[in-house]
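Q: Convert this sequence to structure tokens.
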Amino acid sequence: MNFPFSLEEASDGSLNGELITADIAYAVDPWTQVSAILALPFAHAVDFGTQSSFGDIGFEYGRRFGRDATKGYFGIAPAITLPTGNQDYGLGAGRVTIDFPILYQKDIADLSLYTDLRYRLHGGDNGRSYWFWGVAGEQDISERFSVGAELFTATPSEESGPWAAGFNLGTNIALIGDTRFLFSIGRAFNREPKLTLYAGVQVLTRKEGQ
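A:
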């Protein structure tokens, strides 16, 4: 289970993000995971103040085609988001959006490499669909602490908009038991948002015998 706070800041000073998100995942077997994502988003505009309410609801099916990351393996994680949030206040997309990602992971000693290529159906402004591609690396510093970086690009998510390119820097810290703290900060180089921030707690629960 993940419980993150996220924030994006635009050049005009407006903010949007999620005060808290309940990302609840269940491992059906070693290769399959299903998830439900329930969010409490917020939106702040200089002229209109701050709004917050329940947001869109998402469901995801994850399947990996391998378990030995030292050899590398692919995975998929199609997801659908239902428009249960209030679009008028910037608290929801106002339409069904669907993600079709192809994922890859490869471990080299203490370094984990990841790629994420996905098509976002109706995921952009005014329902425009677009492609996203990200490449990330996470380096273990110790058994309880790791750092990571991501570079990403995306095709235009709005009519006549630019391609996106940006980066994120983050850390993963073990707390008590199977609880971890995740943090990242980043930005896009050539379009909004000018700042992204993510901070959350991840809680792992294990089936009996695992």
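The chain has no helices and 14 strands.
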